[in-house]
Amino acid sequence: MTRQIVVPAKEGPSKQRGAIAIMSAFLLSALLAFFVVTIDTGRLFYEKRQTQKLADLAALETALLYCRDQTLTESERRAIALEVLAPERNNFPGGDEDITVELGRVETQTAEDGSKSKTFVVDENGFGVRVTLNKVVTASIFALVRPGIPSTINLKPAGVAQACQPTASLSIRSSMASVDLSRSSLLNDQLGALLGNPLGVSVAGWNGLVSGTVNLRDLLDNLADTLGLPSGEYETAMTTSIPVDELLEAIADVAGEAGFADAATALDDIAAAVPGGVTDLTLRDLVVVQIGAPNTAFDTNLQAMQLVQGIIQNVAAASGTSPEIDENLLGLANVSIRTKILEPPILANTGNPAHAAEDPNGNDAIYVRTAQLRTFAAIDLPISGAALSALEGLINNPLLGTLSSALSTLSGASPPSSADDLCPLGITSPCTTESDVLDVKFIENPRLDILVQGGAGDARVTNHSCNSSGTERELNTSVRSSAAQVMAGEFGSTTDDAADNAFGDDEPDPAILPLIDIGSVRVRKTCVLLVACTTEYRRADGSWTTDAAQAERTAYSGGGIGARMTGNYLAGQGSLDYSNSSGDEFLPEISDVLSDDAYQSVYSNSISDGVEDSLLGLELVFYDPTTESTLATVSDAMGAAASTLTSTMNATINATLEPVVNALFDQIHESLGVSLAEVEVGGSMTCQSDKVELVM
């Protein structure tokens, strides 16, 4: 039987072409749809961008012209916007009814998460201008092929600009009114040591720097010539590095042109003393002007002295030096004082107080600060001569017998007088006894190390107010001093070792400075009769001698008395308010030279006062005996005797410390202008300027 196999016929070319055509039509439709969406998106984005640009231009020009003439009515402000949008200028396709011009103010809100947002509030007393445009555009090219799709949409971009913005400036200056010969010598020594070369500025030169001022804009013009920059490139001139000597010479030129000849001479002398290898500086290291501030912000005046202090402190901070100050300049003997700049100052800061008030610690803050430094002093305390005799008299005073008894109990030794009664009453045969006898020794001329670090302060703008015409203005600031850490004790075995430890990278940790060593010696007494006794003292080799000076002494067996202090002191914070209500000199315009009335002192009681009081009230420390005892019982066991002893010791120490502490804060710190209590902060403000910017 024959099996038939049926083979299916192959599809012809005509059927394959049909499937390809269907697939191609589908892909073409998808590609066309994608193309249309892309074209629509790009076209609408372009339309919105162009319309937004027109709204911004109209808002900027309207706000600027309104700032210059605040009598403009609503219709006149609208006419300005229409002129900007006219066909011959920017060719806005809409009609008059498509343009809205509003006057108001911009408010900033802070959310719970810290984020900020801005809103425009319509207000006829504001200086913000919002221009809103309405432009009708074709919604989509799909509308040409498919009915029912909206054919047009309305774009309503709004531009918000603000002019008549205030500009405020804070400045710090040295509180020195004048410089005498002794102050001149100290300034030459101290600032010269920080700079790295001796200075020889005359008394007249230093006084010229104190009284002289330098206009920032004039200085920037001079620097632009020196650096080969176009005129008016103020921000570039401020941020371009320049050698320190050239910067000082530029300041000298401006001071000389302003009529401060003595200041110019002093600046030239300092420039000539700048050593090689010093790191270049920028003017922005000393003075800050907010980016985008109007040119009027650069029209401020700076004290020549503060510029010199700031430049030298920047050099010292970069080099990390800690030079020693000549003790003879301070009228002190046996004192070593060194300083190190940790952070240089900011001498002046200018910007928009409205922005600064939104976040006084933010990027737009207007603040000035003093330098932060570390000061080390090693002082030889003269506990000798009459002072030593007075203290020894306290120990031996019969009225203070409880002191010897208390020390004997704590040390396990006997009072010195106990060696006179070693044989029991009635025993006449020879007897020999041994005991440890108390031996109190005062450390002659101990070296007390003091370290003061921190204590810098700042002042920053927190608020401002201006009336509608800008004739009445007020600037509010907060001022604060950071914590000053004060340590006293013994930082090292020698002065140089102590200074290295004080200025090292590790956290300083002074040891207790011993002042009184409560020790003991081994005494052997042999008596034949009650009135015939010999006393011997054991040497280090175990032999005995009748010479007490050769006796082996166990130091601190009964403990000791020393001095040490570690604490943080904060001057606190307050506020300074500047107002022109009493006269324009109290809050002048930005371009005016700040008079003495424009400066205010920060604190009547400074952080220095708190540190001085603490150092001059240095408390003594009772520390552990080498024999087993309880430290907590020392002061209680001594009672009134301990109180008398510590009072006498404190009086002796304070008599030495007082001139040193005064030198530290009243001379050294004031010369550097490092504490807000020793400088003055000045304010100036212009309520309205031609600066205009988009704010939303």
From TrEMBL:
Superkingdom is Bacteria
Q: Where is the Putative Flp pilus-assembly TadG-like N-terminal domain?
A: 18-61
In Pfam terms, one family for this protein is Tad
List keywords of the entry alphabetically.
Membrane, Transmembrane, Transmembrane helix
Record field: transmembrane:
20-39
InterPro entries per record: Tad_N
Q: What is this protein called?
A: Putative Flp pilus-assembly TadG-like N-terminal domain-containing protein
Say which species the protein is native to.
Spongiibacter thalassae
Q: What is the lineage of its organism?
A: Bacteria, Pseudomonadati, Pseudomonadota, Gammaproteobacteria, Cellvibrionales
